[in-house]
Write a structure and sequence with these properties.
The protein has helices spanning about 10-35, 40-55, 65-80, 90, 120-125, 140-145, 170-185, 190-200, 200-205, 230-240, 260-265, 275-280, 295-305, 320-325; strands spanning about 60, 85, 105-110, 130-135, 150, 225, 245-250, 255-260, 280, 285, 305-310, 315-320. With about 325 residues, the chain is α/β, with parallel strands linked by helices. α1 crosses α7 and α3 (about 65-80) runs parallel beside α7 (about 170-185). The longest helix is centred in the first third of the chain and has 26 residues, at about 10-35.
Amino acid sequence: MHAGLKKPVDRNAAIASALRTVEAEQSGLAALKSALEDGLSAPFADAVEVLSQIRGRVIVTGVGKSGHIGSKIAATLASTGTPSFFVHPAEANHGDLGMIAKDDAIVAVSWSGETFELKGIVAYARRFSIPLIAITAGGASTLAREATVVLALPRAPEACPHGLAPTTSTMLQLVIGDALAVALLEARGFTPEHFRTFHPGGQLGASLTQIRDVMHVGDRVPLVASGTSMAEAVVQISQKGFGCVAVTGADGRLEGIITDGDLRRNLGDGLLGRTVDEVMTRSPKTVDPDTLAATALQIVNSSAITTLMVVEAGRPVGIVHLHDLLRIGVA
């Protein structure tokens, strides 16, 4: 039966409850950290070694709340360079065991280690000598006895006041799964460019775009040589439409930049009769073509500017505007 709310919520009680939950789960995390600094350290390193050496995929499995956590672990592994997917043990017992190959490894998530539905997939792992990593608090459980590596989690109290709803326990499963994914990411030398390959869409994909993919090049770049008159520089600013013009030396290296703001600050001072060298801002903010779009946006925002010159070996090769970054969805 659904226990509906029959009276107004006590806001102070709700906040106190939230704080108790956070404190309980913080205690669980502290226990996990202590375990990783002690007896869990060697099995964790063994698990990373096993998963990094397989030629196939990581198959994650679990039931109930552990299954939900297992799905997330599989998704995190897959998105960080470790081929992985989730197989529900009940479906595995009805044909999906065929999805698991001899070159794969299995990560089984079960708080008790006695989950009946895991029996078939555990037997399959043993029959075909498939590495089995157990994530469980049942260090002496059936699952642990059959596993190649046991990641024995500390039995921290649940945040649920009745000790029934999986709360702290599922958080610990999630954290150890994240720890595995990050350790494997680092072991594989997974880079932001690799990350972009697996996340081409949305704001994350946009943030991982390199400036070379969005910058304007060639005749679109507003450039004038050192010694050019301001009259000609103003024409360049107007024609190219970026609100600025870059100034280069005889060797083609960037020496400075003139923006609309520089023009406003120098109006009424014989501006058009002066040279760009007298007006330009020296050592402007720049990026190289390999800079991530998210980094460029941070520079633009923190410096209160709208454009960045893109340089290689000190020479301008492009220009990027704030609108270019917004257009691809970085912000």
